[in-house]
Automatic annotation (TrEMBL), chain A:
It comes from the Bacteria. Its main location: membrane. It comes from Actinomadura fibrosa. It is a multi-pass membrane protein. This is FecCD family ABC transporter permease. The keyword Transport applies. The chain crosses the membrane at residues 28-50, 82-101, 121-154, 214-233, 254-276, 326-342. Belongs to the binding-protein-dependent transport system permease family. FecCD subfamily. The keyword Transmembrane helix applies. Keywords: Cell membrane, Membrane, Transmembrane, Transmembrane helix, Transport. Pfam families: FecCD (PF01032). It is found in: Cell membrane.
Length: 368, 302
């Protein structure tokens, strides 16, 4: 777990690059490992399904037009995998940005009502306007997510927003919007079936057109999120400290809300309100990278799709020949893991404690 | 050791050279206050300041100047507006009237990062992100020197290392900030402010919550930073500390400046009675010769 540990003696040495004491190479190596893990899950996602393929078959299906597996891979599994990648990265990043923005470890686009806003708009569109295509969904999802984000900003205190007020306003909006979604579903039994799959979160209905429509939004969100890493880092130390460092908290807050809206709107439109990934992944990543968002965000963007695709693959094999939706698998399988994680106090920062313990033992540092 | 803030060009033709040693090269206590005319040419000053939180007015029509190269200490009773004044000088708080002027230009018009390369503030309350290491926290002081195109550099590395050495926290570099003692933590925060490399350094109650040994440790550090050429402004609670370390003392009450100048001239029994409402004697400190406030003993009932 101790990716960021570096020997104390190395600290005073001038090192070519990287934050001091941060172990740039360790963090970079970890990111590379995460990318490899992602590649492995992508292969699994291409290979596993109603018609299992070997890794070699999956590869031939991907690149060779004449291969027997070409149709399966390109028609079904590739769009699904790409969508999982995009939605996973979007939700993981949105969660990480949200947690940094509200300085609340429980903040999550699901928890703050952004996903619920997108859901409410999409459910309204299905039920009242009879819209069924993704092209229709996506704008409603953005409108819903955006409206909630603006409302959240206003109710949370505008320019003077505090983390606590944002979190409170978010949970209230979230509860209200989900009640609305449930009410519409119960009243409109005809559309219920269609909505049912959408509102639990699924990658199964993915088409390549959906992927290409989502991609630009996620790409913009990704760039904005990475640009926010340093300002949000500064804001983590409090408003006054951020200002005296030359950061502009008001501006960063607005950009952050736009970013989260883009990412959540796109992900929710494409595969329904998938919760949990935005909450859990940044938590787990924080243990690996520490609180520095310049590392936490890229790690989240890579590891969130690992979780997403992993859950999707699991859902395909768990109840064969049927399938479980990714949103359900994620919560059912991920919930206990997350609980274990939260309950384990030393899981928060094993590095620091171990280092301190080791030094105290060697008598290097006087007790404070 | 010196932190090379002279590697940055002065943002404007500063009236005094940045590295001004001033009259304060000896023990800070025995040095004389900045000459009176320094006030007119001060890099940092405020005129006609009205300071308010929402509707609650803390100070009105406040004129203040920080003499260049001074260790200015602002003292006064609780809620007299001293921290508010410091926040206004650092542009954390926008005055509802009047303006703070830095290097001849209203501070309100300074670009955020340029201001942060000239003037640093250590706020009273800062939050150390959970699990952050000392080195990572100090490195965040480099924020105003970085940008999208200018990421982490050797220069940043060097300054962070120097800042940690200057504050004596280099050996803690890998420790988590959460598990340090109060004195160590405060030195880490000061190291972060140092890494900003600003010729002006503002500290809001840097000794609060520290025991006496750590208070002195932090103040000695501030005095050294001042001797190295920085203009230091601090809000302090302890009058005796203020008298010992300040080269320029500003005493405030009810949002007004009651007296300012060299501590030896300013700190008198009358002033303490006037500002704090505390009857006392002022004697010479046996250690430094600076004024030492001895509160009057409670009279026993006859």
């Amino acid at each position: 777990m101790s990716l960021t540990k570096s020997p104390p003696s190395a600290v005073a040495d001038p090192r070519p690059s990287g934050p001091p004491g941060a172990g740039l190479s360790a963090r970079a190596a970890g990111l590379l490992a995460a990318l490899l893990l992602l590649a492995a899950v992508v292969v699994l996602s291409l290979a596993v399904g109603a018609k299992p393929l070997s890794a070699g078959e999956a590869w031939r299906g991907l690149v060779d037009r004449d291969a027997a597996s070409y149709t399966v891979v390109h028609q079904m599994r590739l769009p699904r995998t790409l969508l999982g990648l995009l939605a996973g990265a979007a939700l993981g990043l949105a969660g990480a940005v949200m947690q940094a923005l509200t300085r609340n470890p429980l903040a999550d686009p699901g928890l703050l009502g952004i996903n619920a806003g997108a859901s409410a708009a999409v459910v309204s569109a299905i039920s009242f306007l009879g819209i069924v295509s993704f092209t229709g969904f996506v704008w409603f999802a953005f409108a819903g997510a955006g409206a909630v984000a603006v409302l959240l900003y206003a109710v949370g205190g505008g320019r003077g927003a505090t983390p606590a007020r944002l979190a409170l306003a978010g949970s209230a909006l979230n509860a209200a919007l989900y009640s609305y979604v449930s009410a519409v579903q119960l009243l409109d039994t005809a559309s219920l079936d269609r909505m049912r799959f959408w509102t639990v979160g699924s990658l199964a209905a993915a088409e390549s057109s959906t992927v290409w429509r989502v991609a630009p939004f996620v790409a913009v969100g990704l760039v904005l999120a990475f640009a926010l890493a340093r300002p949000l880092n500064a804001m983590a130390m409090g408003e006054d400290a951020a200002r005296s460092l030359g950061a502009r908290p008001e501006r960063a807050r607005i950009v952050a809300i736009v970013t989260v809206t883009l990412l959540c709107g796109a992900a929710t439109a494409a595969c329904g309100p998938i919760v949990f990934v935005g909450l859990m992944v940044p938590h787990f990543v924080k243990v690996l990278t520490g609180p520095d968002l310049r590392w936490l965000l890229p790690y989240s963007a890579v590891l969130a799709p690992v979780l997403m695709l992993g859950a999707d693959v699991l859902g395909r094999v768990a109840v064969r020949p049927s399938e479980l939706q990714v949103g359900i698998v994620m919560v059912v399988a991920g919930g206990p893991v997350f609980l274990y994680f939260v309950r384990r106090p030393q899981g928060i920062r094993p590095r620091a404690r171990r280092t301190a313990g080791a030094r105290a033992a060697s008598g290097e540092v006087a007790a404070p | 050791m010196t932190l090379h803030h002279d590697t940055h060009p002065a943002p404007a033709p500063a009236p005094a050279p940045e590295g001004v040693a001033g009259p304060a090269t000896a023990a800070p206590a025995s040095s004389s206050a900045a000459p009176p005319d320094a006030t007119a040419a001060a890099r940092l000053s405020g005129g006609g300041l009205t300071l308010a939180y929402d509707r609650r007015v803390v100070a009105e029509g406040l004129d203040v100047a920080v003499p260049d190269g001074s260790f200015t200490v602002i003292v006064g009773p609780n809620a007299c507006g001293k921290s508010t004044l410091l926040r206004a000088l650092a542009r954390i708080l926008k005055p509802s009237a009047g303006a703070v002027v830095l290097d001849g230009r209203p501070i309100a018009g300074w670009p955020a990062k340029k201001l942060a390369r000239t003037l640093g503030l250590l706020p009273q309350t800062s939050i150390a992100p959970e699990g952050i290491s000392v080195a990572d926290l100090v490195a965040r002081g480099r924020y105003p020197h970085q940008g999208l195109l200018r990421q982490w550099s050797r220069e940043d590395e060097r300054v962070v290392t120097e800042s940690m050495e200057a504050t004596g926290v280099a050996e803690l570099a890998d420790r988590a900030v959460d598990e340090l003692s109060g004195g160590q933590r405060q030195r880490v925060w000061i190291a972060m402010a140092l890494a900003q490399q600003t010729p002006l350094l503002l500290l809001d109650e840097p000794t609060t919550y520290l025991d006496i040994a750590h208070q002195i440790e932090v103040l000695d550090l501030c005095a050294r930073l001042h001797e190295e050429g920085r203009t230091v402004v601090a809000v302090l609670h302890d009058l005796n500390h203020a008298s010992r370390y300040a080269t320029h003392l500003i005493a405030m009450r009810d949002g007004r400046i009651v007296a300012e100048g060299e501590p030896g001239a300013v700190v008198t029994a009358e002033l303490v009675e006037d500002v704090f409402g505390l009857p006392c004697q002022v004697i010479d400190c046996p250690e430094t010769g600076t004024p030492l406030v001895v509160p009057a003993a409670r009279r026993r009932a006859p």
